[in-house]
Amino acid sequence: MNPITQILNEYPVMIIDGAMATELERMGCDLHDDLWSAKILLERPELIKQVHAEYFAAGADCAITASYQSTIEGFAARGIPETDAIRLIQTSVELAAQARDEFWAHEENRLHRPKPLVAASIGPYGASLADGSEYRGHYGLTEDELISFHRPRMKALIESGADLLACETIPCLSEAKAITRLLEEFPGTYAWISFSAKDGRHISEGTPISECAALLDSCSQIAAIGINCTPIEHIPPLIEEIKRAASKPIIAYPNSGEQYDPVTKTWKGAACENNFGKSAQGWYENGVSLIGGCCRTKPADIQAIADWAKTLKTT
Q1: 229 appears as a binding residue in the annotation
Q2: Quick one: angle between helices 45-58 and 82-106, nearest 10?
Q3: pTM over 0.70
Q4: pLDDT in tens, 157-216
Q5: Is 62 among the annotated ligand-binding positions?
Q6: Quick check: 283 and 291 in contact, CB under 8 A?
Q7: For 115-129, what is each residue's pLDDT tens digit?
Q8: Which domains does the chain have, with CATH numbers?
Q9: Is 9 helix (H, G, I), strand (E, B) or coil?
Protein backbone atom coordinates (compact mmCIF):
# COMPACT_ATOMS: atom_id res chain seq x y z
CA MET A 1 0.00 0.00 0.00
CA ASN A 2 1.31 3.46 -0.76
CA PRO A 3 2.42 5.40 2.34
CA ILE A 4 0.08 8.33 1.78
CA THR A 5 -2.93 6.03 1.73
CA GLN A 6 -1.74 4.40 4.94
CA ILE A 7 -1.72 7.76 6.74
CA LEU A 8 -4.95 9.09 5.23
CA ASN A 9 -6.76 5.88 6.19
CA GLU A 10 -6.22 6.87 9.83
CA TYR A 11 -5.93 10.66 9.78
CA PRO A 12 -7.97 13.27 7.91
CA VAL A 13 -4.95 15.33 6.92
CA MET A 14 -1.24 14.72 6.37
CA ILE A 15 0.98 17.66 7.25
CA ILE A 16 3.95 18.41 4.98
CA ASP A 17 6.90 20.45 6.22
CA GLY A 18 7.85 23.98 5.13
CA ALA A 19 10.75 25.70 3.40
CA MET A 20 14.25 24.34 3.85
CA ALA A 21 16.09 27.33 2.36
CA THR A 22 14.38 29.91 4.59
CA GLU A 23 15.58 28.14 7.72
CA LEU A 24 19.09 27.53 6.39
CA GLU A 25 19.39 31.25 5.62
CA ARG A 26 18.17 32.04 9.12
CA MET A 27 21.03 29.87 10.39
CA GLY A 28 23.51 31.97 8.43
CA CYS A 29 23.88 29.93 5.23
CA ASP A 30 24.55 31.77 1.98
CA LEU A 31 22.31 30.22 -0.69
CA HIS A 32 23.07 32.65 -3.51
CA ASP A 33 24.39 29.78 -5.54
CA ASP A 34 23.27 27.63 -8.46
CA LEU A 35 23.14 24.63 -6.11
CA TRP A 36 20.84 26.50 -3.69
CA SER A 37 20.20 24.37 -0.56
CA ALA A 38 22.09 21.46 -2.13
CA LYS A 39 25.21 23.52 -1.46
CA ILE A 40 24.69 22.89 2.26
CA LEU A 41 24.91 19.13 1.68
CA LEU A 42 28.54 19.88 0.88
CA GLU A 43 29.22 22.46 3.58
CA ARG A 44 27.00 21.97 6.66
CA PRO A 45 24.84 18.84 6.36
CA GLU A 46 24.14 18.87 10.08
CA LEU A 47 22.12 22.07 9.60
CA ILE A 48 19.83 20.32 7.13
CA LYS A 49 19.20 17.62 9.71
CA GLN A 50 18.45 20.31 12.29
CA VAL A 51 15.86 21.95 10.03
CA HIS A 52 14.13 18.61 9.52
CA ALA A 53 14.05 18.11 13.29
CA GLU A 54 12.45 21.54 13.78
CA TYR A 55 9.68 20.73 11.34
CA PHE A 56 8.97 17.36 12.96
CA ALA A 57 8.75 19.11 16.33
CA ALA A 58 6.35 21.64 14.78
CA GLY A 59 4.03 18.82 13.73
CA ALA A 60 5.09 17.78 10.23
CA ASP A 61 4.06 14.27 9.20
CA CYS A 62 6.42 14.32 6.21
CA ALA A 63 9.86 15.78 5.52
CA ILE A 64 10.89 16.77 2.00
CA THR A 65 14.60 16.15 1.47
CA ALA A 66 17.18 18.74 0.43
CA SER A 67 17.60 17.17 -3.00
CA TYR A 68 15.42 19.54 -5.04
CA GLN A 69 18.41 21.13 -6.74
CA SER A 70 20.80 18.22 -6.16
CA THR A 71 21.65 16.87 -9.58
CA ILE A 72 24.58 15.04 -11.07
CA GLU A 73 24.94 17.83 -13.62
CA GLY A 74 24.91 20.53 -10.95
CA PHE A 75 27.53 18.82 -8.85
CA ALA A 76 29.62 18.07 -11.96
CA ALA A 77 29.84 21.82 -12.58
CA ARG A 78 31.69 21.96 -9.24
CA GLY A 79 34.08 19.26 -10.31
CA ILE A 80 32.35 16.56 -8.24
CA PRO A 81 32.47 13.09 -9.85
CA GLU A 82 29.21 11.25 -10.53
CA THR A 83 29.79 8.65 -7.79
CA ASP A 84 30.29 11.39 -5.22
CA ALA A 85 27.29 13.31 -6.53
CA ILE A 86 25.09 10.26 -6.11
CA ARG A 87 26.38 9.85 -2.58
CA LEU A 88 25.48 13.48 -1.79
CA ILE A 89 22.01 13.01 -3.24
CA GLN A 90 21.49 9.94 -1.05
CA THR A 91 22.81 11.82 1.97
CA SER A 92 19.80 14.13 1.72
CA VAL A 93 17.53 11.17 2.45
CA GLU A 94 19.73 9.85 5.23
CA LEU A 95 19.71 13.21 7.01
CA ALA A 96 15.92 13.40 6.95
CA ALA A 97 15.57 9.78 8.07
CA GLN A 98 18.01 10.29 10.94
CA ALA A 99 16.15 13.38 12.10
CA ARG A 100 12.85 11.51 11.85
CA ASP A 101 14.04 8.45 13.75
CA GLU A 102 15.66 10.49 16.52
CA PHE A 103 12.53 12.61 16.86
CA TRP A 104 10.21 9.61 16.87
CA ALA A 105 12.24 7.79 19.51
CA HIS A 106 11.35 10.56 21.98
CA GLU A 107 7.93 11.60 20.70
CA GLU A 108 5.32 11.43 23.47
CA ASN A 109 2.36 11.97 21.15
CA ARG A 110 2.66 8.77 19.11
CA LEU A 111 -0.95 7.77 19.64
CA HIS A 112 -2.22 10.96 18.02
CA ARG A 113 0.00 11.32 14.97
CA PRO A 114 1.57 9.01 12.37
CA LYS A 115 5.24 8.19 12.23
CA PRO A 116 6.53 10.81 9.79
CA LEU A 117 7.52 9.95 6.24
CA VAL A 118 10.58 10.97 4.25
CA ALA A 119 9.71 12.22 0.76
CA ALA A 120 12.71 12.51 -1.53
CA SER A 121 12.50 15.74 -3.47
CA ILE A 122 12.83 15.57 -7.25
CA GLY A 123 12.90 19.08 -8.60
CA PRO A 124 12.17 19.78 -12.26
CA TYR A 125 14.76 19.92 -15.01
CA GLY A 126 14.41 23.70 -14.91
CA ALA A 127 15.76 23.84 -11.36
CA SER A 128 19.08 22.42 -12.53
CA LEU A 129 19.43 25.40 -14.89
CA ALA A 130 19.14 27.85 -11.97
CA ASP A 131 17.51 30.43 -14.25
CA GLY A 132 13.88 30.30 -13.19
CA SER A 133 12.88 27.75 -15.83
CA GLU A 134 10.80 25.86 -13.28
CA TYR A 135 8.36 28.79 -13.53
CA ARG A 136 8.24 28.66 -17.34
CA GLY A 137 8.69 25.04 -18.40
CA HIS A 138 9.45 25.60 -22.06
CA TYR A 139 12.57 23.43 -22.08
CA GLY A 140 12.63 22.30 -25.71
CA LEU A 141 13.38 18.74 -24.56
CA THR A 142 11.58 15.52 -25.47
CA GLU A 143 10.03 13.23 -22.88
CA ASP A 144 12.82 10.73 -23.49
CA GLU A 145 15.43 13.40 -22.82
CA LEU A 146 13.68 14.35 -19.59
CA ILE A 147 13.56 10.71 -18.53
CA SER A 148 17.31 10.42 -19.12
CA PHE A 149 17.87 13.51 -16.96
CA HIS A 150 15.71 12.30 -14.08
CA ARG A 151 16.67 8.61 -14.06
CA PRO A 152 20.01 8.68 -12.14
CA ARG A 153 18.72 10.88 -9.34
CA MET A 154 15.42 9.01 -9.04
CA LYS A 155 17.29 5.71 -8.85
CA ALA A 156 19.68 7.06 -6.21
CA LEU A 157 16.87 8.45 -4.06
CA ILE A 158 14.84 5.25 -4.24
CA GLU A 159 17.88 3.14 -3.33
CA SER A 160 18.55 5.41 -0.34
CA GLY A 161 15.33 4.20 1.29
CA ALA A 162 12.99 7.18 0.94
CA ASP A 163 9.37 6.38 1.71
CA LEU A 164 8.17 8.08 -1.47
CA LEU A 165 9.15 10.70 -4.01
CA ALA A 166 8.10 14.35 -4.02
CA CYS A 167 8.19 15.37 -7.68
CA GLU A 168 7.62 19.06 -7.12
CA THR A 169 7.39 22.44 -8.83
CA ILE A 170 6.79 20.68 -12.13
CA PRO A 171 6.01 23.42 -14.69
CA CYS A 172 4.99 21.45 -17.77
CA LEU A 173 2.86 18.46 -18.66
CA SER A 174 5.62 16.82 -20.71
CA GLU A 175 7.80 16.57 -17.60
CA ALA A 176 4.95 15.06 -15.59
CA LYS A 177 4.46 12.50 -18.35
CA ALA A 178 8.18 11.72 -18.34
CA ILE A 179 8.16 11.17 -14.59
CA THR A 180 5.19 8.82 -14.71
CA ARG A 181 6.84 6.80 -17.48
CA LEU A 182 10.08 6.65 -15.50
CA LEU A 183 8.28 5.47 -12.36
CA GLU A 184 7.28 2.33 -14.22
CA GLU A 185 10.94 1.31 -14.12
CA PHE A 186 10.68 1.22 -10.31
CA PRO A 187 7.68 -0.96 -9.38
CA GLY A 188 6.40 -0.42 -5.85
CA THR A 189 7.62 3.19 -5.75
CA TYR A 190 5.06 5.92 -5.15
CA ALA A 191 5.29 9.64 -5.81
CA TRP A 192 3.27 12.78 -5.64
CA ILE A 193 3.44 15.27 -8.47
CA SER A 194 2.86 18.91 -7.62
CA PHE A 195 2.93 21.64 -10.23
CA SER A 196 3.97 25.27 -10.19
CA ALA A 197 1.13 27.42 -11.50
CA LYS A 198 0.87 30.79 -13.22
CA ASP A 199 -2.72 31.52 -12.17
CA GLY A 200 -5.82 29.82 -10.78
CA ARG A 201 -6.28 27.48 -13.75
CA HIS A 202 -2.98 26.88 -15.53
CA ILE A 203 0.38 25.39 -14.65
CA SER A 204 3.43 27.49 -15.45
CA GLU A 205 3.78 26.53 -19.11
CA GLY A 206 0.08 27.30 -19.69
CA THR A 207 -1.57 23.86 -19.71
CA PRO A 208 -4.84 23.73 -17.72
CA ILE A 209 -4.15 21.95 -14.45
CA SER A 210 -7.38 20.01 -14.93
CA GLU A 211 -5.82 18.39 -18.01
CA CYS A 212 -2.73 17.46 -15.99
CA ALA A 213 -4.81 16.04 -13.14
CA ALA A 214 -6.96 13.98 -15.49
CA LEU A 215 -3.92 12.38 -17.06
CA LEU A 216 -2.23 11.58 -13.72
CA ASP A 217 -5.40 10.21 -12.14
CA SER A 218 -5.04 6.92 -13.99
CA CYS A 219 -1.40 6.40 -12.97
CA SER A 220 -1.28 3.85 -10.17
CA GLN A 221 2.11 4.98 -8.82
CA ILE A 222 1.01 8.60 -8.41
CA ALA A 223 -0.19 8.88 -4.82
CA ALA A 224 -1.31 12.51 -4.87
CA ILE A 225 -1.68 15.43 -7.27
CA GLY A 226 -1.38 19.09 -6.44
CA ILE A 227 0.36 22.45 -6.35
CA ASN A 228 3.42 23.91 -4.69
CA CYS A 229 5.74 26.92 -5.04
CA THR A 230 2.75 28.98 -6.16
CA PRO A 231 1.26 32.19 -4.71
CA ILE A 232 -1.23 31.40 -2.00
CA GLU A 233 -4.11 33.27 -3.67
CA HIS A 234 -4.12 30.82 -6.58
CA ILE A 235 -4.61 27.75 -4.40
CA PRO A 236 -8.44 27.74 -3.97
CA PRO A 237 -9.32 27.87 -7.70
CA LEU A 238 -6.56 25.37 -8.54
CA ILE A 239 -8.00 22.97 -5.99
CA GLU A 240 -11.38 23.22 -7.68
CA GLU A 241 -9.84 22.48 -11.08
CA ILE A 242 -8.03 19.38 -9.75
CA LYS A 243 -11.13 18.10 -7.94
CA ARG A 244 -13.12 18.38 -11.12
CA ALA A 245 -10.69 16.18 -13.04
CA ALA A 246 -9.24 13.64 -10.59
CA SER A 247 -10.09 11.53 -7.56
CA LYS A 248 -6.61 11.10 -6.06
CA PRO A 249 -5.63 12.89 -2.83
CA ILE A 250 -4.81 16.55 -3.40
CA ILE A 251 -1.65 18.14 -2.04
CA ALA A 252 -1.08 21.87 -1.58
CA TYR A 253 1.99 23.59 -0.19
CA PRO A 254 2.21 27.13 -1.55
CA ASN A 255 4.65 29.94 -0.93
CA SER A 256 4.16 32.38 1.91
CA GLY A 257 2.39 34.87 -0.35
CA GLU A 258 5.49 36.77 -1.43
CA GLN A 259 6.33 36.86 -5.13
CA TYR A 260 9.58 35.36 -6.46
CA ASP A 261 11.46 37.13 -9.25
CA PRO A 262 13.51 34.41 -11.01
CA VAL A 263 15.60 37.03 -12.83
CA THR A 264 16.88 38.83 -9.73
CA LYS A 265 16.41 35.76 -7.48
CA THR A 266 14.68 37.95 -4.90
CA TRP A 267 11.30 37.97 -3.14
CA LYS A 268 8.92 40.90 -3.38
CA GLY A 269 5.71 41.91 -1.71
CA ALA A 270 4.28 40.92 1.64
CA ALA A 271 3.52 37.53 3.09
CA CYS A 272 -0.09 36.45 3.36
CA GLU A 273 -1.82 38.19 6.24
CA ASN A 274 -3.97 35.17 7.04
CA ASN A 275 -2.71 32.68 9.58
CA PHE A 276 -1.38 29.70 7.64
CA GLY A 277 -3.50 27.39 9.76
CA LYS A 278 -6.65 29.33 8.83
CA SER A 279 -5.77 29.09 5.14
CA ALA A 280 -5.08 25.38 5.54
CA GLN A 281 -8.50 24.87 7.05
CA GLY A 282 -10.09 26.39 3.97
CA TRP A 283 -8.06 24.17 1.65
CA TYR A 284 -9.00 21.10 3.66
CA GLU A 285 -12.68 21.99 3.54
CA ASN A 286 -12.34 22.26 -0.25
CA GLY A 287 -10.83 18.80 -0.57
CA VAL A 288 -7.08 18.99 0.16
CA SER A 289 -5.75 16.24 2.42
CA LEU A 290 -1.98 16.90 2.25
CA ILE A 291 -1.04 20.40 3.39
CA GLY A 292 2.23 22.20 4.02
CA GLY A 293 4.32 25.18 2.99
CA CYS A 294 6.90 25.96 0.32
CA CYS A 295 9.27 28.91 -0.11
CA ARG A 296 9.49 31.43 2.73
CA THR A 297 7.34 29.40 5.10
CA LYS A 298 8.67 28.52 8.54
CA PRO A 299 8.18 25.98 11.35
CA ALA A 300 5.71 28.42 12.91
CA ASP A 301 3.52 28.09 9.82
CA ILE A 302 3.59 24.31 10.04
CA GLN A 303 2.83 24.57 13.75
CA ALA A 304 -0.24 26.65 12.89
CA ILE A 305 -1.43 23.91 10.52
CA ALA A 306 -0.73 21.22 13.12
CA ASP A 307 -2.59 23.13 15.84
CA TRP A 308 -5.66 23.38 13.61
CA ALA A 309 -5.35 19.73 12.48
CA LYS A 310 -5.41 18.54 16.10
CA THR A 311 -9.00 19.66 16.28
CA LEU A 312 -9.83 17.26 13.45
CA LYS A 313 -7.95 14.36 14.95
CA THR A 314 -9.61 14.68 18.32
CA THR A 315 -13.23 15.11 17.22
Answers
A1: yes
A2: 40
A3: yes
A4: 999 999 999 999 999 999 999 999 999 999 999 999 999 999 999 999 999 999 999 999
A5: no
A6: yes
A7: 999 999 999 999 988
A8: 3-313 (3.20.20.330)
A9: coil
